[in-house]
Specification:
The protein folds into two domains: 14-219, Alanine racemase (TIM Barrel); 237-368, Beta Barrel (Lyase, Ornithine Decarboxylase, Chain A, domain 1), CATH 2.40.37. It has helices at 14-26, 39-43, 47-57, 67-75, 90-98, 108-117, 139-148, 168-187, 198-202, 359-366, 370-375; strands at 9-13, 33-37, 61-64, 82-84, 102-105, 121-124, 152-156, 192-196, 211-214, 237-242, 245-249, 254-255, 261-262, 267-272, 289-292, 295-300, 308-312, 322-328, 356-357, 382-386. α1 (14-26) crosses α3 (47-57). A hairpin with a 7-residue loop joins β16 and β17. Helices cover 27% and strands 23% of the residues. By secondary structure, the protein is an alpha/beta fold. The chain binds pyridoxal-5'-phosphate.
Length: 392
């Protein structure tokens, strides 16, 4: 029997979260607050532990998407201001009121209901995202309505292209928001104006206003799915399993559903007890790689619901060895910043001294973004924390 290994573990380094919050706050102009975005269970990292770590490092607000996410923070005893970003039904607004959360508003009936329930609102203006929010011309009237009802707290918007190299549309949204914010702050000096997500925060102070709302960068993931280390942040999560068994495939033997991999010569095949029901996406079959005791090994055959198979070198890999799906091999979660980013495909010639697979690399292979990879880890993956503050 192998002991001390769990089939699939997401190790979350809360010291990395604190480091990332401090890094993001380093260039905030005087007074701008940091809102730690912990929606979707903290992008898969665990909302409550991440919220606590972020508050320890200097965040003063927490951002979530739903009323139940706000309730989860309150149930854990967290008292910091919470802003719920998403649309709420009447029942959702009542729950927000009971948890003492603030909400986002973009219609008159919703503002009226918030006034009735005494819930502070942040008026959302659509400066180009084309999703939620009122047109800029309508925002002053909605702010006035909320103000007259005693619930006006903020003015907010959201960027559509802050992570793209072409800054044209970003500048247009920024200009639109800046004009509106200046106009409304003359009328309501305490109005908290905010628009920046991680990508915009890292672009510099012009988009910071009174508060920034960062999710992805706080988790040490690169907003443009490239290299997180270039911005001085470091990944907080490593996903790890172990070699549960090894079998010798003989020439002509196939592995897994659909027989998509067939041995050309005698091959050692490692069995890893992680599958798509853990969030290890099926598209990585015959495509992705893992680190077995620090060495890159290709995933062969299809990924099953609960297991997958990897090709082992003749002289490498024993039952119980660590298998890293992403993160650094060995004791560290992220590895050092020494590697140079070369793109999101395959083994790299500049492998850092601590072998590492970045979440961005896995995402690139899947044609998606790091956000989806971490949010896609299912509850079956055990979350384990390091760097917990002993005082809390
Ligand atoms: C999710 C979200 C954010 C955080 O975005 P990141 O790109 O992860 O920093 C900020 N604001 C709103 C309204 C969001 O929904």
């Amino acid at each position: 029997m192998l002991s001390g290994r769990h089939r699939a573990v997401a190790e979350v380094d809360l010291e990395a979260v604190r480091h990332n919050v401090r890094r993001l706050m380093r260039d905030l102009p005087g007074g701008a607050a940091h809102c730690a975005v912990v929606k979707a269970d903290g992008y898969g990292h665990g909302a409550v532990p991440v919220a606590r770590a972020a508050l320890e490092a200097g965040s003063s607000w927490l951002g979530v998407a739903t009323a139940s996410e706000a309730e989860e923070l309150r149930d854990a005893g967290i008292t910091a201001p919470v802003l719920i970003f998403g649309p709420l039904t009447g029942a959702g607004l009542e729950r927000a009121a009971r948890s003492g959360a603030q909400v986002v508003a973009w219609s008159e009936p919703f503002v009226d209901e918030a006034v009735r329930l005494r819930v502070p609102v942040h008026v959302k203006v659509d400066t180009g995202m084309g999703r939620l929010g009122v047109r800029p011309s309508v925002a002053p009237a909605l702010c006035a309505r909320a103000h007259d009802g005693g619930v006006l707290s903020g003015l907010m918007s959201h960027f559509a292209t802050a992570d793209e190299p072409d800054t044209g549309f970003f500048e247009r949204q920024l200009e639109c928001f800046a004009g509106l914010a200046a106009q409304l702050k003359r009328r309501y000096p305490d109005l908290r104006c905010h628009i920046a997500n991680s990508a915009a925060t890292l672009r510099g102070p012009r988009a910071h206003f009174d508060m920034v709302r960062t999710g992805i960068a706080m988790y040490g993931l690169a907003p443009a799915n490239d290299d997180p280390f270039k911005d001085g942040i470091r990944p907080a999560m490593k996903v790890v399993s172990y070699l549960a068994g090894i079998r010798e495939a003989l020439p002509g033997d196939s592995v897994g559903y659909g027989r998509t991999w067939i041995a050309e010569r005698a091959t050692r095949v490692g069995i890893v007890p992680v599958g798509y029901a853990d969030g290890m996406r099926r598209a990585l079959g015959n495509r992705g790689e893992v680190l077995v005791a620090g060495r890159r090994c290709p995933i062969i055959g299809r990924i099953s619901m609960d297991q997958m198979t990897v090709r082992l070198p003749d002289d490498w890999g024993a039952p119980g060895d660590e298998v890293v799906l992403f993160g650094a091999a060995g004791d560290g979660v992220a590895g050092g910043p020494e590697a140079v980013w070369t793109g999101a495909t395959g083994p790299r010639s500049d492998e850092p001294s601590t072998p590492r697979i970045l979440c961005e690399e896995v995402a690139g292979m899947l044609g998606t973004i790091n956000y989806e990879v971490v949010c896609g880890l299912t509850p079956r993956v055990v979350r384990r924390y390091r760097g917990e503050d002993p005082a809390t």
